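Data card: per-record layout.
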Amino acid sequence: CGSLTSFPKLDLSSGTDFGYAWTDCTSLTSFPHADLSSGTYFSHTWQDCTSMASFPALDLSKGTVLSYAWLRCTSLTSFPVVTFTTDADDDVNFTETWKGCTGLTSFPSYLNLARGTNFSYAWKDCTGLTSFPAVTFSLTASDDVDFTSAWDGCTGLASFPALNLSRGTDFRFAWKACTSLTTFPAIALTAGTDFYGAWDNCTAMTSFNATGLDSGTNIGGAWNSCTSLTTFPAIALTAGTDFQWAWYNCNSMTTFLATGLGSGTNFTSTWKSCSSLTSFPALDVSSGTIFDDCWRYCSALTSFPALDTSSGTIFKYAWEGCTSLTSFPILDV
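The structure for this 333-residue chain is written out next.
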C-alpha cells in the first residue's frame, strides 16, 4: 500500500485482528476515525507509515497487543489520547510501540497506560521529545513491568517527571543516551532488579535523585560515562552482585557516597577513569572476586583505603594509571 494516500472510513467494527493491516503505507498522510473498538491485536498495524502526520483519538480499549503499532511513524509530531484498556485482567504489550517516532515533540499527559506490562523500547529513539508527561503506569502489586530501553536514545529529553514506576522490574538501558537530561528525579524504583546500563551515557546529568535501588542485582554499566555527574549520592545497593562498568568514565565525579556493595562479586572497570576522585571511601567489597581495571586511570587519587579484597582472584590493571597515589595500604590480594 505504498502509494495509498488516504484510507476510507470503512465499517471495521467487527474486526479483532489488525496486525500489519497498514504496515508500510508510506504515502498515507492521515487515518480516519474508524471504529476499531473490537480490536484486540494491533501489532505492527501502522508501522512505517512514514508520511502519516496525524492520527485520531481511537477507541482501542480491547487491545492487548500494541507492539510496534506506530513504529517509525516519523511524521507524527503529536499523539492523541487514544483509549487503552483499564481492565485489571489485561496485560498489554507496548514493545516498540512508538520507537523511532523521531518527529514526536510531545506525548499526551492523560494517556492511561496502567495495564501495560511491557514497555521495552516503547519510546526508543524518539529524538524530538524534550519532555515526558506524567502518564499513569501500573500500580498493581502483582504486575512486573518491563522498561528495558524504554526511553533509550531520546537525545532531546531535557527533563523527566517523577513518575510512579514502582512496579518496574527491568530497567536495562531505560534512559541510556538521554544526552540532554540534566537531572534525574526522585523516583522510587523499589521493585527494580536489573539496572544494567540504565543511565549509560547520560552525559549532561549533573544530579541523580532516584531511590529504592536496593533490590537491584545487576548494576553493571548503570552510570557509565555520566561525565557531568560530580557527586554520587548515598544510595544503598545492598542486593547488587554485578558492578562491572557501573561508574566507568564518570570523570567529573569528586564524591562517591554509595553504600551496600558488600554482595558485589564483579568489580571489573567499576570506577575506571573516574579521574577526578581524589579519595575513595572504605567500602565493603569483601565478596568481590574480580577487580580487573577497577580503579584504572583514577589519576587524581592520592590515597587508597584498606579494603577487604581477600576474596579477590583477578586484579589485572586494578590501579594502573593512578599516577597521584603517594601511599597504599597492605591489602590481602
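Known properties of this structure: Residues 71 and 78 are 14 Å apart (CA to CA). The mean pLDDT is 94.

See the next section for split statistics.
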